[in-house]
Amino acid sequence: MRRPWERHSEVCAKVIIATKVGNQWRPDGSGWDWNPSKAYILQAAEASLHRLQTDYIDLYQLHGGTIDDPMDETIEAFELLKEQGKIRYYGISSIRPNVIRKYIKRSDITSVMLQYSLLDRRPEETVLDQLQQHQIGVLARGSLAQGLLAGKPAKDYLGYTSEQVRQAAEAVQGVAGTKRKLAEVAVRYVLHHPVVSSAVLGIRTKEQLEDALAAASSVALSQQEMQTLRELLPPNRYTEHR
Fold it and tell me: Which of 116, 121, 119, 139 is nearest to 195 (CA)?
């Protein structure tokens, strides 16, 4: 069965409802606590269905996760929700390679949301290929690197100096030329890897919406363009949670 987010190249009118679970707000509103327990996931799913006014959620994701979580209990909750027809698929949202590997081995996750961009190439080291091997799709967030690849002033970012970030932004501009937007190139870099099913973009303005629509309909980057971008800076690597 083809999952609803598998073909990012097609424009589809169908609405896919995805939400997350794991951060439990305190009753007094003072903040939230991490809670990946089975009881809370089941309770939170019911609350989400009520708020969304729907019978089922297409994709239910664990919002984070650590290697010390009661993972079997968490997976039991997701599997039960699938059996009950309250969710269609489940996944995790994590940048921790050790957590991702555990879920690959022990669960039936269909997706992993993680941060990935030209300025955050950590997933390229091992994670993307592992997920592709197991046919688990990636929802990439942070494709514009906090806007640094789409026109915002350069600053230090994930081990890169502000000068290196400026060089990356200039390279994106060079590839974009006069016919493409900066966001198109930045997003298409992420979508080039076949395991990436979708780029998740934050949209607050009309201009950002136009950028997202342009990226969705833009042609893929050529191999030469990809090589230009890849060779610009040494890729960064995960230093924790390996």
Answer: 139
Kindly state the helix (H) or strand (E) to which residue 191 belongs, with its residue range. Answer: helix 182-191
CA 231 → CA 69, 108, 118, 170, 171, distances in Å? 38, 36, 11, 14, 10
Tokens 């879920």 correspond to 103
pLDDT tens series, the chain, 242 aa? 335 444 444 444 578 899 999 999 998 989 999 999 999 999 999 999 999 999 999 999 999 889 999 999 999 999 999 999 999 999 999 999 999 999 999 999 999 999 999 999 999 999 999 999 999 999 999 999 999 999 999 999 999 999 999 999 999 999 999 999 999 999 999 999 999 999 999 888 998 888 888 888 889 999 999 999 999 999 999 999 98
Q: How far is CA 72 from the centre of its chain?
A: 23
Separation of alpha carbons 97 and 85, rounded Å:
30
Who's near 94: CB < 8 A, 6+ residues apart?
Answer: 62, 64, 65, 100, 103, 112, 113, 114
- Return the sign of the alpha-carbon dihedral for residues 158, 160, 161, 162: negative
Please state, in angstroms and rounded to a whole number, the distance separating the CA atoms of residues 148 and 165: 7
**147 secondary structure, DSSP code:** T
Q: How far apart are alpha carbons 49 and 57 in whole angstroms? A: 7
